[in-house]
Amino acid sequence: MNNQQNNKNKQDISKKSRRKKEIMSWVWAIIAVLIIRQFFIQAFVIPSESMKPTLKIHDRLLANKIIYKIRQPHRWEVIIFKYPEDPKKYFVKRLVGLPGETVEIKNGHVYINGVCMQYPDYIKTPLYYYNDEDGDFGVNGETKIPEGAFYTLGDNSINSKDSRYWGFVPEKNLVGKALFIYWPPWRMGTIR
C-alpha cells in the first residue's frame, strides 16, 4: 500500500508539474505576442480602394513597426500612420514628399522641388487628380513640406483622401512600413 500511495503522489505531482509548465508556456507565448505586436510587427486590414491596385479592400498586411526608429522613411514606400485629424485611425498611403521639400501636383503629375518625378517600375504610373473644392496642399502651386513631416498620396488618386486634402503627416504619427500581404492567399506577397 505504501508503494501505491507513493506512486499516486508522484503521479499527482507530475500532473501538477505538467499543468504548471503548460500554463507558463501559454503565459510566455502571450507575452511574446504582445511584445512583438507593440514594438515590431502589426497586422492591418485595408478598408478602402485608396491604394488600389497595390492594396485592395480586405487585404491583410503586416507592417514593420521598428524600421522608422532605425532609419528615415524613403520616398515611394507604402507607410502606415495615424491619421493627423483623428490619431485613433490608421491610414495606409505611399510616401511621396520628404521633410523640407516642395511638392506640387500639376497636369496629373507630382513635382518635387520643381522636378517631375519618375515613378519606380513597380508603381503603375498614376495620374493625380483633385477636386478644387477639397484639395489645397500642393495642388494650387508649390507647397513646402515642414521639417518633421511627410507628404503622402494614395495610388488610386480618384478615390483617395490624402495629403492633397488634409496636409502633412507628422513624423510622430508614423507607425511603420507596409511589408507583406498575408491574406487572401492569392494576393500574398511583398508590398512595394
Automatic annotation (TrEMBL):
SUPFAM superfamilies: LexA/Signal peptidase. Residues 23-183 form the Peptidase S26 domain. Keywords: Hydrolase, Membrane, Protease, Transmembrane, Transmembrane helix. One of its GO terms (molecular function) is signal peptidase activity. CDD domains: S26_SPase_I. The keyword ATP-binding does not apply. Its EC number is 3.4.21.89. The active site is at S50, K93. One of its GO terms (cellular component) is membrane. It is a single-pass type II membrane protein. It comes from the Bacteria. It is found in: Membrane. One of its GO terms (biological process) is signal peptide processing. Belongs to the peptidase S26 family. This is Signal peptidase I. It comes from candidate division TA06 bacterium ADurb.Bin131. The lineage of its organism: Bacteria, Bacteria division TA06.
